[in-house]
């Protein structure tokens, strides 16, 4: 239950009545701002590691605490295993110890995930992001067994990714509570949009919860989440940094202002076309060395989609 911070006499969503702050909530292992990075490709469909390293460097310069590589936005489903491993190496080479690198290690084949977790660890990853096995639609016992096996496979902190819109099934609260007892399972990327379920997890576990939807960051942090794993932050990391810092400093008015400013940008990046497609298009418009190329079955934004995105960004005051 949230309470009043006696030192500041302000409402503190992280402070339970009669308790001190849990240190992981105010200084979370992966930080507060995380961008789920795109994977740039060359015109001949190779991973453009030079462009990727330049993007990783810029994102950290703009305030990211950690970066996710080979996640959904990184087109993980169409990356080869050696490319995923190479992206971890490249990210670590680019940012060093300035940010943590979280490797997307997920497929819907548990034994493959175990191997990818080990490869990510060997490549120098600081953590792994693991999504619910998709398409298979396992039972909750199967979900629990899958995450437990992956967590046991490598000495890496694990972030659960709960996104039923992509995986086909939610992770039930009871399953998350059981998984939270595993010493390597430290955090949850929550893209379920179920406030009641999220509140229960916040209340009953010490998991560090991140909003998995860019439009929910302010609301989720008000409940006690620690930050966001963002797509829109490719193009707006300083804005997300301002909003997060405002919440952490109890500056609600400032946080609401930035949240409103981000609204059209989030709409343009997240609702007009798939997020990897949109992010590459926006980065290209902004002059970064990122091709708009994506791998099938994704295709580049068509003219109508581009027009809608441009309208949203111009509504936000961007000069494009």
From TrEMBL:
Keywords: Amino-acid biosynthesis, Cytoplasm, Diaminopimelate biosynthesis, Lyase, Lysine biosynthesis, Schiff base. The record marks 72, 135 as: Part of a proton relay during catalysis. Pathway: Amino-acid biosynthesis; L-lysine biosynthesis via DAP pathway; (S)-tetrahydrodipicolinate from L-aspartate: step 3/4. GO terms for cellular component: cytosol. The keyword Cell membrane does not apply. Pyruvate binds at residues 73, 229. The keyword Ubl conjugation does not apply. Coiled coil: none annotated. Pfam families: DHDPS. It comes from the Bacteria. It is found in: Cytoplasm. Its main location: cytoplasm. The active site is at 161 (schiff-base intermediate with substrate), 161 (proton donor/acceptor), 189 (schiff-base intermediate with substrate). Signal peptide: none annotated. GO terms for molecular function: 4-hydroxy-tetrahydrodipicolinate synthase activity. InterPro entries: Aldolase_TIM, DapA, DapA-like, Schiff_base-form_aldolases_AS. It catalyses: L-aspartate 4-semialdehyde + pyruvate = (2S,4S)-4-hydroxy-2,3,4,5-tetrahydrodipicolinate + H2O + H(+). One of its GO terms (biological process) is lysine biosynthetic process via diaminopimelate. Its EC number is 4.3.3.7. NCBIfam families: dapA. Belongs to the DapA family. HAMAP family: DapA (MF_00418). Catalyzes the condensation of (S)-aspartate-beta-semialdehyde [(S)-ASA] and pyruvate to 4-hydroxy-tetrahydrodipicolinate (HTPA). Homotetramer; dimer of dimers. This is 4-hydroxy-tetrahydrodipicolinate synthase. It comes from Candidatus Nesterenkonia stercoripullorum. The lineage of its organism: Bacteria, Bacillati, Actinomycetota, Actinomycetes, Micrococcales.
